[in-house]
């Protein structure tokens, strides 16, 4: 029994690093109609050691017009010594989660991750209330955590920070989300006739 408890503890071990987290609104549009809205969170250590590559965590959450929520995440190593903007080298991950401070972590449904179109990234579906809570946290400026497990590592890499966004980015995300909810409501009311 002790062995099982120790193995469970080791699987969830990780240190929390304070991070600078940038939030960017996302909008998926088809034929002028909004198909989905979300935010991309790019998170970097607050006080990186610039003498070695920096690990950046990249996560996003989206809500789609079909009532599906989605999470996507990955990790990138960025060479801090390069003067030009570097895209970074993907570090394949085996799992990830997002968490609003004070809430339970948001995991993908059934723990089923799928490879994303971005090499090394994973994605999965989540329920609508979980995605709505993530939107609310960004808008209210609540601290959020991003946790990833890089393949081959025995610990979660966890970054914690308040998502930073401009008033314009907040307004864009709020407007997209509102229009998407209006579309979903209209579709539901049309189906009841």
Architecture overview:
By secondary structure, this protein is of the alpha+beta class. It has one domain: Immunoglobulin-like (Sandwich), CATH 2.60.40. It contains three helices and eleven strands; from the N terminus they run αββββββββαβββα. Strands 1, 2, 3, 4, 5, 6, 7, 8, 9, 10 and 11 form an eleven-stranded mixed β-sheet that branches. The radius of gyration is 18 Å and the shape is globular.
| Count of the separate structural domains | 1
CATH architecture: Sandwich
Q: What percent strand?
A: 35-45%
Q: Can you give the helix content as a percent range?
A: 10-25%
Overall pLDDT metric: 86
Choose one word for the global shape: globular
The separation of the N and C termini measures 57 Å
Instruction: Return residue spans where pLDDT drops below 50 for at least 5 consecutive residues.
Output: 1-11
CATH class placement: Mainly Beta
Rounded to the nearest angstrom, the radius of gyration is: 18 Å
Q: How many strands, which pairing sense, and closed or not: the largest β-sheet? A: 11 strands, mixed
Q: Structural class from helices and strands?
A: alpha+beta
Number of β-strand runs: 11
Classify the fold: give the CATH topology: Immunoglobulin-like
Order of helices and strands: HEEEEEEEEHEEEH
* Total of helices: 3
């Amino acid at each position: 029994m002790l062995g099982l408890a120790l193995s469970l503890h080791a699987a969830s071990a990780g240190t929390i690093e304070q991070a600078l987290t940038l939030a960017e609104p996302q909008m998926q549009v088809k034929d002028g109609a909004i198909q989905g809205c979300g935010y991309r969170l790019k998170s970097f250590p607050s006080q990186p050691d610039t003498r070695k590559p920096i690990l950046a965590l990249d996560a996003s959450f989206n809500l789609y017009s079909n009532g599906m929520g989605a999470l996507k995440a990955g990790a990138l190593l960025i060479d801090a010594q390069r003067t030009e903007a570097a895209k970074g080298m993907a570090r394949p991950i085996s799992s990830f989660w997002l968490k609003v401070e004070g809430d339970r972590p948001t995991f993908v449904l059934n723990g089923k991750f799928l490879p994303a179109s971005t090499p090394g990234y994973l994605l999965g579906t989540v329920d609508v209330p979980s995605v709505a809570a993530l939107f609310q946290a960004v808008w209210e400026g609540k601290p959020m955590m991003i946790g990833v497990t890089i393949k081959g590592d025995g610990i979660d890499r966890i970054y914690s920070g308040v998502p930073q966004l401009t008033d314009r980015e907040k307004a864009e995300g709020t407007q997209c989300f509102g229009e998407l909810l209006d579309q979903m409501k209209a579709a539901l009311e049309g189906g009841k006739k």
